Structure formats: C-alpha cells, structure tokens
Amino acid sequence: MPKYAMVIDQRRCVACMACVVACKNENDVPPEQYRTRVLEMVEGEFPQLRMELRSELCNHCDNPPCVYNCPTGASYKRKEDGIVLLRKNRCVGCKACVAACPYDARYINHEKGFADKCTFCEHRLKEGKEPACVATCIGKSRIFGDMDDPKSPVRIALQNSDATVLLEGAGTRPRVYYIKKFSKPE
Amino acid sequence: MKLSRRTFLKSSGVATAGLAVATAVPEKFLLWAEEAGLIKATYVPTFCEICFWKCGAIAKVLNGRVVKLDGNPVHGNSRGKLCARGNGGIGLLYDKDRLKSPLINVGKRGEGKYRKASWDEALGLVAEKMKGIKQQHGPEAMALFTHGAPTDHFLPLLSAYGTQNVGMPSFAQCRGPRDVGYELTFGEGPGSPERVDMINSKVIVLIGSHLGENMHNSQVQDFTEGLGRGAKLIVVDPRFSIAAGKAQQWLPIRPASDLALLLAWINIIITEGMYDRPYLDQFAEGFSDLAQAVSHCTPQWAEQETDIPAAQIMETARMMGQNAPAVTIHPGRHATWYGDDVQRSRALAILTALLGSWGRSGGLFMATKGSLTKGESKPFPEPGKEPLNTGGYPFAGAEGVTQAIREATISGAPYPIKGWFVSGTNLLKALPDQKRTLEAINKLDLLVVVDVMPMDTAMMADVILPECSYLERYDALAIGKGKSLSVSLRQPVIKPLYESQPGWWIAKELANRLDLADYFPWTTYEEKIKAQCVTAGISYDDLKKLGSLTIPDTAAPYITPENQPVFKTASGKIELSSKELKEKGFDPVPVYVRHPQPPEGFFRLTYGRSAVHTFSRTTNNPALNELYKENEVWINAKKAQALGLKNGEYVLLINQDGAKSNRIRVKATQRIREDMVYMVHGWGSTPKELSRSSLKGADDQGLVTRYAVDPIAGSTGMRVNFVKLQKEA
C-alpha cells in the first residue's frame, strides 16, 4: 500500500504558475478558486534581498484537522494511501473544514456547493499518472511518490536535503515537504 | 438526476451509451461523466501558439470539448510539460469574446462600427481593394506585417501578389539586433530556441533576461535543471527578478550601462589571461585589436558607469573565467533597449568567444546539421521596385524594419504604401510611437487584419478576418533546430468554432480571388503537409499520431576533431573585431557611449513579461486573466513613500513628452532600483469587445514616444523614455 507524499523543491520553482492552471483544468476548479497556489515573498531592503517562492496545496496531513472537524463524515483520510478526500454526497457545505485547515487549502466550490481541495489527483494516480501539477512542473520543483518506496522520487529528493513542513508546531503531520525555504544561499 | 441517467444508460446498453451521453452531458459534468465511465476521452497531439516557442501539446477531448492540454513528452520544447499559458490555451479557444465572423467597417476608421459579413463578401472586398492598389500604385504599395504561424500562409500570398515589403516586429522590436550582433561575430545567430546549453553549465549569466517570468518552456526547464545540478548564477538586472532571486551574484545595474559592464568583463578576462588561447588561435581573429580597444575598461571605470562595485565586477568575471568553457552567457531575446543594441550583443558574443563557450558543453551548442526542404512552390515574381523595408540600414534582416514601412506610409516616399495586411501581431502594441502608427493607419486605403481576438489593431481594420485558434487548424510543419532536427505537426483538435477559418484557408481563398491560385496548388493544407512529408521521407502517419518526430543522427552540438565549426563571417572565423562593421563605418569593437539618465523627478520606463501572459494577446484569456488581471507599475518602496504613493493605488504615468497612460496600480517594492519603474508589457488594450482586459492596466507602448534607432540594424531601442507618476484625480 503506497504512502503518497509530495516534495516541493523551492530552489527549482520559478513561480511560473503552470501548476496552478494545470490543476484548475484537470479538476474543473471554478473561476477565482484554487486547489494550489504559488506565493512570491521577498524580504530585506534593496539591494540586500532574498526571495521565497512557495507552492501551497493540501498537506494530506496524517493528523488532519479537517477530517476531525467534519460533522457529517464527508471528509476522510483514505486508509490505503493516506490521501485526504471528501465524499461529496455527504458534504453539506458547512465550512467547518475550511475553518479547521491551518493551511487554507480548502474552499467551498461555489458552483457545486461542496467543500473542495487537492486530491493529489487520485483519479490520475489510478491511471498511473502523476498529479497534474507535478506532471507539468517546468522546474521539476514538485516531486511526487510513495514514501514507503526507497526508490521513489520523493524518497530520493528527501535523502540529501533538509526538508521541513509548514506549521510543524500545529501537529498536523503534513505529507507535503519543502526543501530549502530560501533560494539564495543563507 | 445523476442516478436516473446512469440507470438509463445501463438499460440502454453500452454500444449506444457514448452517443446518448454525447448530447446529454452538460459541459460542467464532463469530468464526472468520464470518471463514471460514461464517456471516453480522445487525445490529439498538436503544438501550442499561445507564445511562439511552439511546444508540443496533447489535447484531451471529451464529447467534442477540449478539457485539458498536456505537454507532449516526445516534443523537445515541452518534454511533457506546458507552462501556465500553454495550459491556459483552452481559455483562448472558448473565450466568448473571440472574433466570430468576418466584419466590415461601416464607420470611420477606429470607430469600431462593424457589420457582419459573409466570407465571400469580405474576401471579395479585400481582393478588389488589393487589385485596385496594385493597378494604381504597383504591388509594392501593399505591406505585410506578421508574426508566428500565420506568416507561413500570408507571406506566400503577399509574395505572390508581388510585394516584398514585409515587417515582422520580431526583428526591429525584439530579437533583431541580437541576431545581427551574433551573426557579425560567429556568422550565425543564437537561434530560437536559443542554443544555450544551461543544463550542462557551471556558470549561467543572465543580462536583463528574466527567465521564469520570460516563460519559454524548455529553456526554463534547462535553466532550473542547470541550477539543480549546481550551476552558479549571475544575474544582471536593475530589478530583483525571479531569476535574480536564485542568483549567487545579483548585479542591480544602472539601466543603460550594460555595455560598460560587458567591456570591463572582457578586459578582465583578457588581462588576467582567463581566455581560451588555443581556441581563439584556431577559430578567431582580431584579438589584439579587441584587447587594445577595451584596455581602458577597468572595473573601477565600470563601477562609475554601472553602479556595480569594482570588486563584484572582478569576482563575477573570475567566476566565468575559472569555469570556462562551461559558461552560458545568455544572448538575451528582447534586445531592443538603447539603440546601441547590436554592439551590446556583439559584446555578449565576444565574451562567449573569449571563454571558448561557443560549441562547447555548458556554453552555446551548435545547430543541428540536419535540414528539411520546404515544399516547392512556383517562384514568386521579382519586385518591380526595391523593397523599402530595410529602411536603408546596412544589416537589417529579411524580417524587415517595421517602422521603415510605417514612415514610408506616412511620407509616401520613396514610393507610396497604400495597404497593410496584418496577421498575428498587434501593431499598436508592438511598435514604438503609437501616434505615428495611428497616423500611418489613417493614411491607408486598405487595412486588413487577420486575428483570433478583437485586439487593438484589428479594431482599426477596414476588414477583419477571424482566424480560428491554433487548436482548430492545420499550420505549416514546425522545423525544430535544437541539438537535433525535429518536425512537429499542428493539426486541428476540434472543428473551427463560429465562422472562424484557418489562416491557410483564408490565404488560399484570397489567392483564388486575386488570380494567384497557381501558388496554392493543393486542396487542403493536410494534403500539402503530406506531400512535404513524402519529399522529406517522413511518415505522416507517425507524425499525426505522435505530434513530433526527432530525426536521428542529426545532432552535433559540440566541437570535436571530427566536428569542426563553420563560421559564416566575412573572414570565416569568429570576428572579435568586425571587418564588416569597420567597412560600413561602424566601430569594429563595441565602444561604450553613456546614455542619458532620467532628469530629477522622472524614472526610466522599463518593461518585461509576466509568466502567465504573452504580450497583449493573452490579456483577455479567462484562464490567464484570472491570474494576472492588470499590470502594475513597480517603483522602489522608498521612492513611493517619498511621493506619498501606497501599494495598490492607481496612478497615471506621464512621460517626458506629456504622453499620459491609462491608470495603473502602484507596486511599491524593494525589488527595484530608485531610478526606474517597471511594468509588464501589453496592457491597456482599448477595444471594449475585450470584456476582461479592456482598459485594464497601462500600455507601456503608449509611453514609448521616443525610441533610439540602432544605426546598424534599424531596430528600435525602447527603454529610453522617462516617466513621472501622478495620483489619479
């Protein structure tokens, strides 16, 4: 049984937004709503500057507050691969999960009424494809695979790097890892 | 409802399920229907034209609707990936604001009053007017302005008609001076895609190239891969670009002083003996002239000019020298900056030569040895009059000097230009001095525009001919000249929407009406491509199925004893000092000339690209507009504060000649020098038919009332205007 995870190698991201548009088409995400986004942050004062480009999406947490806070049982963590998903027909659009998620990864699909978020493109995984954002990532900044497979790209990426997760203190145990926050040498 | 449909389908049997659903599934439920196994996707390979990189794409079609575009894994420019714009191609296809039928102007020019017309009427009118112009003034009185795939249809049409007055903004407003600079040095340009071997570089040097924001797919893939493998990055840019954010060395140079930096680098490489002597002995000439000409260009001198500390100039030069030849000095792309752009490009080329990087791994690789013949055509008529599209500039390329045609249109000299045929370019946004372009347009007897969208120039036309998007048409085969030779096919993914038609059809139909049918001796474009494949020995069936074929054994990227470079310069060698330039009265080695800097209270206007847009042509695309809805004017935060300007508030830009922009939001940021402002090019389109982008953001080109013409190539340096910011009243 795979244990899916994503690694974002921030050193390779150029904030080109290919992932964002690919995701929206792949998953028919309504206008002005997003399952993933790329933040562009700069600190310092001219000319002493450093930049962080950060892709964000659902962290598919091993300790997922959205699941615990769902009153209808619509949100769940799939046992076989750890992907956090949603049973649309059980969702009443109450926004409890939206509020519970510390990563702002969820939204209420304003065309369809239910909560929505990244699924790691589980429909593509079934066909043996990578998630759409990973497949189109120009910089190979997004890396996807099975944490239990020592030969998977995520394991290889994490081997030689200090990876972090977002809001580690929140105790959510994310499955999205970030390599090197700042792209310039620190 | 979902349940009942599913039950119905089960009972009606699998064989007819596809058909039944085809009419029953609203587009919002296509993905659901696919997941439920009710409909099956088809996949069609083609290549993209949201920009001009020509990336292979595979369209996923459900029920006749394109729902996704993916990069074609066998295509060298995409390698299975598409950028945001390529992914957003569907936005163009289904943009409700598209041009839907031929339109004939019924008001004054530019008033935007059109009536729908049939193709027969519109084409008949264009042909009649073109015949009239030919009769009265000769065929040279028609000019063609063009860019991208439509060129392959309309250039033959206008050539057959008898004019060679062609202007492509890609030359005089973009790559021209760069290509000329490299041709004068190496005998050939750096290519498009540029043959930069960044994937193998130890050092990458970008001078004003904002890769990442300038989102050329495979090039950015090579860039990030090179960085991922440990290449050091030097970025020269007055703005802290995305690329600068990844650099070990960021040199926030004073705008317009780049040549001083380059000459200092060249001088350091020479004086410290870091140049590749055996390579130069074998392949180059003019070294001592070069060494002498740059001997005064010390780091200290350059520091005064560039605002970059001498020590940093020295350090970066050494980084290059120590890692040569695996150094990519990026040739740049949009090179029309200050009017001495051929010479600046020459300096880039000379630096590349000194490091021995041309033809070496990690530098600039050599073009494929393979070539493919274009289909035979009846020879075009010889021009009766000398074409005026070189503007008299000695090294103007065959793509033509656009503004020379514009000026002749206004003056009528050396002979009248009475008609413009425009395809694939929005001239009002591409050419500097917009008022002058309008003046020329107002003198015309005929303006015909072929476009997909109602862009600014289209909405000035007498007749608008709606081309279908790249996803609905055949175009000429794309011949890729990367490391290997490749051939790619553009084929329709779906049938043309509305009454739009492919460019090839429009050209052929016009040819029929102009008695030029002999030049288009085929019935369909597919037939023409098939014949071309037969001639070239390529399987059309494979091409159709795969989208792109790489021709084996055509790569010879690096210099080896068996693979010697050929330099098609006057001397047959790399010309560090240019004989050709000297003969024509220009400096054989680039000489730095100080350019004016903005007066007090003004900022230099610079412009560039957004990763999610291509000039003005994507601004209305719903998928891309969503991510970037209007441009902003970047201004140094300290300066903004001094001017009392807040982030996000609207201002007007007023240039030195009093030209005023549309309103634009302030982006107060630390990421830019204090003596300049920056904006993304292509905004502020005026047609109200562009429901999303009409009058959004400011048009940089409206502020480029002055331009510095390069005396060598005739290209227009457009970073020579100064603006001040005024709060919106």
Basic shape of chain B: globular
Average pLDDT metric of chain B: 95
Shape annotation of chain A = globular
**Rounded mean pLDDT score of chain A:** 95
Q: Describe the biggest sheet of chain A?
A: 4 strands, mixed
Number of domains of chain B: 4
Task: Explain this structure.
The complex is a heterodimer of chains A (186) and B (729). With 186 residues, chain A is of the alpha+beta class. Chain A has one domain (4-179): Alpha-Beta Plaits (2-Layer Sandwich). Chain A is 19% helix and 24% strand. Chain A is built from 6 helices and 10 strands; from the N terminus they run βαββαββαββααβαββ. Chain A has helices spanning 18-27, 65-68, 96-100, 122-126, 132-136, 153-159; strands at residues 4-9, 37-45, 48-56, 75-77, 84-86, 107-108, 115-116, 142-146, 163-164, 176-179. Chain A has a 4-stranded mixed sheet. Chain A has a two-stranded antiparallel ribbon with strand order 2-3. In chain A, strand 4 (75-77) and strand 5 (84-86) form a beta hairpin. Chain A starts with a strand and ends in a 7-residue tail after the last strand. The mean pLDDT of chain A is 95. Chain B is an alpha/beta fold and 729 residues long. Chain B has 4 domains: 2-93, N-terminal domain of TfIIb, CATH 2.20.25; 103-172 and 372-469 and 498-534, Rossmann fold (3-Layer(aba) Sandwich); 189-366 and 563-583, Dimethylsulfoxide Reductase, domain 2 (3-Layer(aba) Sandwich); 603-727, Barwin-like endoglucanases. Helices cover 32% and strands 16% of the residues of chain B. Chain B is built from 25 helices and 27 strands. In chain B, the strands form 7 sheets. A 7-stranded mixed sheet of chain B has the order 5-4-15-14-13-6-7, with helices on both faces. In chain B, strands 20-24-21-23-22-27 form a 6-stranded mixed beta barrel. In chain B, helix 10 packs antiparallel against helix 13 (299-306) and helix 10 runs parallel beside helix 15 (341-354). The longest helix of chain B is centred in the N-terminal third of the chain and has 19 residues, at 119-137. Chain B starts with a helix and ends with a strand. Mean pLDDT of chain B is 95; it is low at 1-20. At the A-B interface, helix 1, strand 2, strand 3 and helix 5 of A face helix 3, strand 3, helix 4, helix 9 and helix 23 of B.
